[in-house]
Amino acid sequence: GISWGTGIYEAVKALPPQTYRDIKIVQMLGSLGTSNPEIDGPELMWRLADKVSAQYSAFPVPLLVDSVATRDALIHAPHAIKVVESFQSIDLAMVGIGTVNPSQASLLRTSYINTSQLEHLQQAGAVGDVCVVHFDIKGKLIKTPLTELFLGIGLDDLLRIPTKIGVAAGTVKAPAILGGCRAGLVNVLITDETAAIEVINL
To answer: Is the dihedral of CA 121, 127, 132, 138 positive or negative?
Structure first.
């Protein structure tokens, strides 16, 4: 399974090509549809599948919609149901670790949420997210009205995945890295020295 973001882009880019057998790459979140498709789920899914000679399964829905009714209609459409069902068989996931710090908040940068919504997440105690599942620094999950409007892998399916590789770097991401690990949403970490030291300090 693969999510989206700059960190995932860099990890996929750095991965040496190698042929594996019987592998399928699954897009776990709806598409951003931004002006930078390189960091979007469909493009990253295709790039990774090409690197490891795998099949792939795209999730042809947007990341965020305007109502619960729209979300329910899209996620139960025939072309989406098969992908949602495949979430249960993912045995390794590569996920980005998002932050609510305005300087690096990907959801804000891609205009999926506005400044007011970001502040609401901060006020609720959120320090970051994995696959748009927000949490505080102790790993407690944070639910907001936005939670019901995102399309992607559900919490239960995400937690069920045995190996969840989180990719994030820099001191700004340290609280989110710590919260994501404590929440059980990340159990393998790709990071840099500055972030690792700050996580230890926290």
So the answer is: negative
Query: What do you get for the CA distance between the two ends of the chain, in Å?
Result: 29
Q: Angle at which helices 68-75 and 78-86 pack, to 10 degrees? A: 80
Q: Provide the pairing of β-strand 163-167 with 188-190.
A: parallel
Query: Apex CA 65: angle with CA 136 and CA 60, to 5°?
Result: 105
The contacts of residue 40 (CB under 8 Å, 6+ apart) are 4, 31, 32, 33, 34
Q: What is the block-wise mean pLDDT of the chain (202 residues), using blocks of 10 residues? A: 93 93 94 78 94 94 92 92 94 95 79 82 92 95 86 94 96 97 97 97 96
Burial of 1 (0-12, 13-18, 19+ CB in 10 A): buried
Q: What pTM, to 2 d.p., does this model score?
A: 0.91
What number of H helices and E strands is found in the chain? 9, 9
Q: How far is CA 197 from CA 64, 126, 139, 175, in A?
A: 34, 21, 19, 12
Give residues with Cβ within 8 angstroms of 147, minimum separation 6: 132, 134
The whole-number pLDDT of residue 35 equals 62
- Tell whether the torsion through CA atoms of 66, 67, 68 and 72 is positive or negative: negative
